[in-house]
Amino acid sequence: MYLAIDIGGTKLAAGVVSDDGKVIVRDRVATPQRDVWVALERLVKRVMAAAPVPLSAVGAGCGGPMDPGAGTVSPLHIPSLANFQLQAALAETTGLATFVDNDAKALTLGEAWCGAGRGEMNMVGVVVGTGVGGGILSNGRLLGGRLGNAGHIGHMVVEPGGRPCACGGVGCLEAYACGPAIEAETGRPPQRAPQAIIERTGLLVGRALASLAAVVDFNVAVIGGSVALGFGEPFFAAAQHEISVRAKLSFTEGLEVRRAALGELAPLVGAAALARRGLLGLG
Fold first, then answer.
1. Which PROSITE patterns match (predicted)?
2. DSSP states of the chain as a string?
3. Residue 272 lies in a domain
4. Which of 58, 61, 96, 256 is in Cβ range 3.0-4.6 Å of 271 for a Cys bridge?
Protein backbone atom coordinates (compact mmCIF):
# COMPACT_ATOMS: atom_id res chain seq x y z
CA MET A 1 0.00 0.00 0.00
CA TYR A 2 1.04 3.56 -0.66
CA LEU A 3 0.75 6.85 1.19
CA ALA A 4 -0.70 9.28 -1.35
CA ILE A 5 -0.56 13.07 -0.96
CA ASP A 6 -2.14 15.82 -3.05
CA ILE A 7 -1.10 19.44 -2.50
CA GLY A 8 -3.47 21.93 -4.07
CA GLY A 9 -4.18 25.62 -3.88
CA THR A 10 -7.46 25.08 -2.03
CA LYS A 11 -6.99 21.75 -0.24
CA LEU A 12 -4.39 19.36 1.11
CA ALA A 13 -5.34 15.69 0.88
CA ALA A 14 -3.71 12.46 1.98
CA GLY A 15 -4.75 8.84 1.82
CA VAL A 16 -3.76 5.22 1.82
CA VAL A 17 -4.08 3.52 -1.58
CA SER A 18 -3.90 -0.21 -2.21
CA ASP A 19 -1.77 -1.97 -4.82
CA ASP A 20 -4.77 -2.12 -7.15
CA GLY A 21 -5.63 1.57 -6.90
CA LYS A 22 -8.34 1.50 -4.24
CA VAL A 23 -8.42 4.37 -1.72
CA ILE A 24 -8.62 2.74 1.72
CA VAL A 25 -8.19 5.79 3.97
CA ARG A 26 -8.41 9.49 3.11
CA ASP A 27 -8.50 12.84 4.83
CA ARG A 28 -8.25 16.47 3.77
CA VAL A 29 -7.94 20.00 5.10
CA ALA A 30 -8.18 23.45 3.54
CA THR A 31 -4.85 24.82 2.36
CA PRO A 32 -3.86 27.53 4.83
CA GLN A 33 -2.46 30.88 3.75
CA ARG A 34 0.67 30.28 5.83
CA ASP A 35 2.42 27.37 7.52
CA VAL A 36 1.36 24.97 4.76
CA TRP A 37 3.98 22.40 5.70
CA VAL A 38 2.83 22.39 9.33
CA ALA A 39 -0.73 21.60 8.25
CA LEU A 40 0.44 18.99 5.74
CA GLU A 41 2.72 17.22 8.20
CA ARG A 42 -0.12 17.00 10.73
CA LEU A 43 -2.41 15.55 8.06
CA VAL A 44 0.18 13.02 6.91
CA LYS A 45 0.80 11.75 10.42
CA ARG A 46 -2.94 11.38 11.02
CA VAL A 47 -3.42 9.33 7.84
CA MET A 48 -0.37 7.16 8.53
CA ALA A 49 -1.75 6.35 11.97
CA ALA A 50 -4.95 5.14 10.32
CA ALA A 51 -3.21 2.87 7.78
CA PRO A 52 -4.31 -0.76 8.23
CA VAL A 53 -0.94 -2.21 7.14
CA PRO A 54 2.65 -0.92 6.80
CA LEU A 55 3.13 1.39 3.83
CA SER A 56 5.71 0.80 1.10
CA ALA A 57 6.31 4.31 -0.30
CA VAL A 58 5.02 7.88 -0.53
CA GLY A 59 3.79 9.59 -3.67
CA ALA A 60 3.04 13.32 -3.66
CA GLY A 61 1.47 15.38 -6.43
CA CYS A 62 1.89 19.16 -6.28
CA GLY A 63 1.40 22.12 -8.58
CA GLY A 64 4.43 23.35 -10.47
CA PRO A 65 6.88 24.41 -11.49
CA MET A 66 9.23 22.10 -9.64
CA ASP A 67 12.51 20.27 -9.80
CA PRO A 68 11.76 16.59 -9.16
CA GLY A 69 15.47 15.77 -9.24
CA ALA A 70 16.17 18.14 -6.37
CA GLY A 71 12.85 17.41 -4.65
CA THR A 72 11.84 21.09 -4.57
CA VAL A 73 8.44 22.54 -5.43
CA SER A 74 7.34 26.11 -6.21
CA PRO A 75 3.58 25.93 -6.86
CA LEU A 76 2.33 29.20 -8.38
CA HIS A 77 -0.85 29.11 -6.30
CA ILE A 78 0.92 28.43 -2.98
CA PRO A 79 3.63 31.12 -2.80
CA SER A 80 4.66 30.12 0.74
CA LEU A 81 5.98 26.80 -0.65
CA ALA A 82 8.39 28.41 -3.13
CA ASN A 83 11.57 26.31 -3.42
CA PHE A 84 10.36 24.07 -0.61
CA GLN A 85 12.23 20.79 -0.14
CA LEU A 86 9.08 18.69 -0.22
CA GLN A 87 10.68 15.34 -0.99
CA ALA A 88 13.18 15.57 1.86
CA ALA A 89 10.56 16.83 4.31
CA LEU A 90 8.15 14.00 3.52
CA ALA A 91 10.88 11.37 3.62
CA GLU A 92 11.99 12.57 7.04
CA THR A 93 8.44 12.65 8.39
CA THR A 94 7.40 9.23 7.05
CA GLY A 95 10.65 7.28 6.93
CA LEU A 96 9.58 5.95 3.52
CA ALA A 97 10.88 6.16 -0.03
CA THR A 98 9.29 9.35 -1.38
CA PHE A 99 8.47 10.36 -4.95
CA VAL A 100 7.31 13.88 -5.82
CA ASP A 101 6.03 15.17 -9.15
CA ASN A 102 3.53 17.50 -10.75
CA ASP A 103 -0.10 16.86 -9.74
CA ALA A 104 -1.28 16.72 -13.36
CA LYS A 105 1.40 14.18 -14.23
CA ALA A 106 0.18 12.19 -11.24
CA LEU A 107 -3.40 12.33 -12.53
CA THR A 108 -2.19 11.12 -15.92
CA LEU A 109 -0.49 8.10 -14.36
CA GLY A 110 -3.50 7.36 -12.19
CA GLU A 111 -6.00 7.50 -15.04
CA ALA A 112 -3.72 5.33 -17.20
CA TRP A 113 -3.36 2.85 -14.32
CA CYS A 114 -7.00 2.33 -13.40
CA GLY A 115 -9.14 5.14 -14.84
CA ALA A 116 -10.37 6.56 -18.13
CA GLY A 117 -7.00 6.02 -19.83
CA ARG A 118 -6.53 2.40 -18.83
CA GLY A 119 -4.64 0.61 -21.58
CA GLU A 120 -3.74 3.79 -23.46
CA MET A 121 -0.10 4.22 -24.43
CA ASN A 122 -0.33 7.74 -25.88
CA MET A 123 -2.48 10.17 -23.94
CA VAL A 124 -2.51 13.50 -22.17
CA GLY A 125 -4.00 14.09 -18.74
CA VAL A 126 -5.22 17.59 -17.91
CA VAL A 127 -6.22 19.11 -14.57
CA VAL A 128 -8.45 22.20 -14.74
CA GLY A 129 -8.87 23.47 -11.20
CA THR A 130 -7.06 26.07 -9.11
CA GLY A 131 -4.45 25.91 -11.87
CA VAL A 132 -4.26 24.18 -15.24
CA GLY A 133 -1.67 21.44 -15.63
CA GLY A 134 -0.97 18.42 -17.76
CA GLY A 135 0.95 15.20 -18.12
CA ILE A 136 2.00 13.46 -21.33
CA LEU A 137 2.18 9.70 -21.77
CA SER A 138 4.14 8.80 -24.92
CA ASN A 139 4.51 5.13 -25.90
CA GLY A 140 3.71 4.24 -22.31
CA ARG A 141 6.36 6.53 -20.80
CA LEU A 142 5.59 9.68 -18.83
CA LEU A 143 7.49 12.59 -20.38
CA GLY A 144 9.59 14.51 -17.87
CA GLY A 145 11.58 16.98 -19.92
CA ARG A 146 14.85 18.70 -19.09
CA LEU A 147 13.92 19.62 -15.49
CA GLY A 148 10.88 17.39 -15.04
CA ASN A 149 8.31 20.03 -16.00
CA ALA A 150 7.00 18.65 -19.30
CA GLY A 151 3.24 18.95 -19.64
CA HIS A 152 2.49 22.48 -18.44
CA ILE A 153 -0.40 22.88 -20.85
CA GLY A 154 -1.77 25.74 -18.74
CA HIS A 155 1.03 27.94 -20.04
CA MET A 156 0.40 27.36 -23.71
CA VAL A 157 -0.66 30.66 -25.28
CA VAL A 158 -4.28 30.49 -26.42
CA GLU A 159 -4.98 34.24 -26.69
CA PRO A 160 -1.97 36.18 -28.07
CA GLY A 161 -1.84 39.59 -26.43
CA GLY A 162 -4.36 38.41 -23.85
CA ARG A 163 -4.47 38.53 -20.07
CA PRO A 164 -1.41 38.52 -17.83
CA CYS A 165 -0.79 35.14 -16.23
CA ALA A 166 0.57 34.33 -12.78
CA CYS A 167 3.63 32.82 -14.49
CA GLY A 168 4.59 36.23 -15.88
CA GLY A 169 3.48 35.48 -19.43
CA VAL A 170 0.52 36.82 -21.39
CA GLY A 171 -2.43 34.97 -22.92
CA CYS A 172 -1.82 31.60 -21.21
CA LEU A 173 -4.63 29.05 -20.97
CA GLU A 174 -4.43 29.21 -17.17
CA ALA A 175 -5.10 32.97 -17.22
CA TYR A 176 -8.60 32.15 -18.55
CA ALA A 177 -9.45 28.60 -17.48
CA CYS A 178 -8.39 28.20 -13.84
CA GLY A 179 -10.79 28.70 -10.95
CA PRO A 180 -9.29 31.95 -9.59
CA ALA A 181 -9.25 33.52 -13.08
CA ILE A 182 -12.89 32.63 -13.68
CA GLU A 183 -13.90 33.98 -10.28
CA ALA A 184 -11.96 37.22 -10.87
CA GLU A 185 -13.73 37.70 -14.19
CA THR A 186 -17.26 36.81 -13.16
CA GLY A 187 -17.31 37.84 -9.49
CA ARG A 188 -18.63 34.42 -8.54
CA PRO A 189 -17.10 30.98 -7.88
CA PRO A 190 -16.60 28.67 -10.88
CA GLN A 191 -19.53 26.45 -9.90
CA ARG A 192 -21.81 29.44 -10.55
CA ALA A 193 -20.17 30.52 -13.80
CA PRO A 194 -22.52 31.47 -16.66
CA GLN A 195 -22.93 29.12 -19.62
CA ALA A 196 -20.86 31.33 -21.91
CA ILE A 197 -17.86 31.11 -19.58
CA ILE A 198 -18.23 27.33 -19.25
CA GLU A 199 -18.26 26.90 -23.01
CA ARG A 200 -15.40 29.35 -23.57
CA THR A 201 -13.30 27.48 -21.02
CA GLY A 202 -13.89 24.21 -22.86
CA LEU A 203 -13.10 25.87 -26.17
CA LEU A 204 -9.78 27.21 -24.93
CA VAL A 205 -8.78 23.86 -23.43
CA GLY A 206 -9.68 22.20 -26.73
CA ARG A 207 -7.62 24.78 -28.63
CA ALA A 208 -4.57 24.02 -26.50
CA LEU A 209 -5.04 20.27 -26.89
CA ALA A 210 -5.36 20.54 -30.68
CA SER A 211 -2.02 22.35 -30.84
CA LEU A 212 -0.37 19.95 -28.43
CA ALA A 213 -1.57 16.92 -30.41
CA ALA A 214 0.24 18.20 -33.50
CA VAL A 215 3.49 18.28 -31.53
CA VAL A 216 3.23 15.18 -29.34
CA ASP A 217 0.97 12.81 -31.35
CA PHE A 218 -1.54 11.34 -28.90
CA ASN A 219 -5.08 10.08 -29.40
CA VAL A 220 -6.76 10.53 -25.99
CA ALA A 221 -7.03 13.47 -23.58
CA VAL A 222 -8.36 12.70 -20.10
CA ILE A 223 -9.52 15.82 -18.27
CA GLY A 224 -10.17 16.17 -14.56
CA GLY A 225 -9.96 18.84 -11.88
CA SER A 226 -12.67 20.60 -9.89
CA VAL A 227 -13.46 23.21 -12.54
CA ALA A 228 -13.71 20.84 -15.50
CA LEU A 229 -15.68 18.17 -13.63
CA GLY A 230 -17.91 20.82 -12.06
CA PHE A 231 -18.70 22.36 -15.44
CA GLY A 232 -19.69 18.95 -16.78
CA GLU A 233 -20.97 18.09 -20.24
CA PRO A 234 -21.08 21.62 -21.76
CA PHE A 235 -17.38 22.04 -21.00
CA PHE A 236 -16.42 18.66 -22.48
CA ALA A 237 -18.62 19.16 -25.55
CA ALA A 238 -17.03 22.56 -26.23
CA ALA A 239 -13.53 21.12 -25.90
CA GLN A 240 -14.32 18.23 -28.23
CA HIS A 241 -15.91 20.55 -30.80
CA GLU A 242 -12.93 22.90 -30.82
CA ILE A 243 -10.60 19.95 -31.36
CA SER A 244 -12.72 18.77 -34.30
CA VAL A 245 -12.46 22.23 -35.87
CA ARG A 246 -8.71 22.68 -35.37
CA ALA A 247 -7.08 19.23 -35.33
CA LYS A 248 -7.07 18.44 -39.04
CA LEU A 249 -3.77 16.62 -39.58
CA SER A 250 -4.27 12.96 -40.41
CA PHE A 251 -2.74 11.85 -37.10
CA THR A 252 -4.64 14.39 -34.97
CA GLU A 253 -8.10 13.76 -36.39
CA GLY A 254 -10.15 11.63 -34.04
CA LEU A 255 -8.48 12.94 -30.88
CA GLU A 256 -10.91 11.98 -28.12
CA VAL A 257 -11.64 13.92 -24.94
CA ARG A 258 -12.63 11.83 -21.94
CA ARG A 259 -13.82 12.81 -18.49
CA ALA A 260 -11.48 11.61 -15.73
CA ALA A 261 -13.05 8.43 -14.38
CA LEU A 262 -11.56 8.54 -10.90
CA GLY A 263 -13.43 11.72 -9.96
CA GLU A 264 -12.45 13.33 -6.68
CA LEU A 265 -10.21 10.34 -5.90
CA ALA A 266 -8.03 10.99 -8.97
CA PRO A 267 -5.38 13.09 -7.14
CA LEU A 268 -4.78 10.43 -4.48
CA VAL A 269 -4.79 7.51 -6.93
CA GLY A 270 -2.45 9.53 -9.11
CA ALA A 271 -0.10 10.22 -6.22
CA ALA A 272 -0.06 6.50 -5.43
CA ALA A 273 0.75 5.86 -9.09
CA LEU A 274 3.81 8.10 -8.68
CA ALA A 275 4.98 5.96 -5.77
CA ARG A 276 4.23 2.76 -7.66
CA ARG A 277 6.16 4.01 -10.69
CA GLY A 278 9.08 5.04 -8.50
CA LEU A 279 9.32 1.64 -6.80
CA LEU A 280 9.25 -0.06 -10.21
CA GLY A 281 12.28 2.02 -11.19
CA LEU A 282 10.54 3.90 -13.98
CA GLY A 283 11.63 7.33 -12.72
1. ROK
2. -EEEEEE-SSEEEEEEE-TTS-EEEEEEEEPPSS-HHHHHHHHHHHHHHH-SS---EEEEEE-S-EETTTTEE--TT-GGGTTEEHHHHHHHHH-S-EEEEEHHHHHHHHHHHHSTTTT-SSEEEEEESSSEEEEEEETTEE---SSS-TT-GGGSBSSTT--B-TTS-BSBTHHHHSHHHHHHHHSS-GGG--HHHHHHHHHHHHHHHHHHHHHH--SEEEEESHHHHHH-HHHHHHHHHHHHHH--STTTTT-EEEE-TTGGGHHHHHHHHHHHHHHTT--
3. no
4. 61
